[in-house]
What we know:
Layout: E1 3-4, E2 10-11, E3 13-16, E4 24-29, H1 39-50, E5 55-58, H2 75-88, E6 94-100, H3 102-113, E7 117-123, H4 129-137, H5 157-166, H6 170-173, E8 180-185, H7 193-202, E9 207-212, H8 223-238
Parallel strand pairs: 4-5, 4-6, 6-7, 7-8, 8-9
Antiparallel strand pairs: 1-2, 3-5
Helix pairs in contact: 1-8, 2-3
Amino acid sequence: xxxxxxHGEKLDYIQDLSSSRExxxxxLGHGVTGNKDRPLQxxxxxxxxxxGWPVLSLSFAGNGDSEGNFEDATIPKxxxxxxxxxxxxKGVKRIAYVGHSMGGAVxxxxxxxxxxxxxxxxxxxxxxxxxxFDTEFGDVVPGQGCMWDEEDCPLSEAYAQSMADxxxxxxxxxxxxxxxxxxxxxxxxxxxxxxxxxxxxxxRGKKKHLVIEGADHCFEGYYPQVVDExxxxxxxxxx
Length: 239
């Protein structure tokens, strides 16, 4: 199966559908500068497959081996990427989306207007987008500098403007009724734990907020615990 977004750009992904759960699909999305092959996303993918879940792990357009330009990879465009993927997945009645960092913001906005997303999981999910941008890239000139000095990740005007326009995901999150698991590390200095705390207080549906002591933004060294928590949440709401 080939996946494309609304612009016709081919999206790179891996999937394992060998599970007997034929009406369920878990979709994984990454954060800014990430892709499906980053260690956390790969670890969650392999862990959930081992737990018996059918999983599709995605690289948003402009990232990894997906087509498109990195400069165009904004939260709104990635929300559209996710909707396009769900349009192309056939025969799946219940979908869970697991998003890391900026991918968490993508999940919030997508689920607010797409009832096909039955369950949400945010891993160090970004909530205050403008604050994140100002803190991490406020001293970088869009169109000239790069994100975290990575030459392959130029900071674009489109990205800067989109983060300012969005500001935060709290308003959209109020419309989400899908059961939502929030996992954050208390040592995260990229997306601060306060983001998940504020989001948890905003949510109106079924929710759980877990803080992992010692975990950083990418949960290095804590993959088994993260996978176990996601598995338990999926079992509770999709099992």
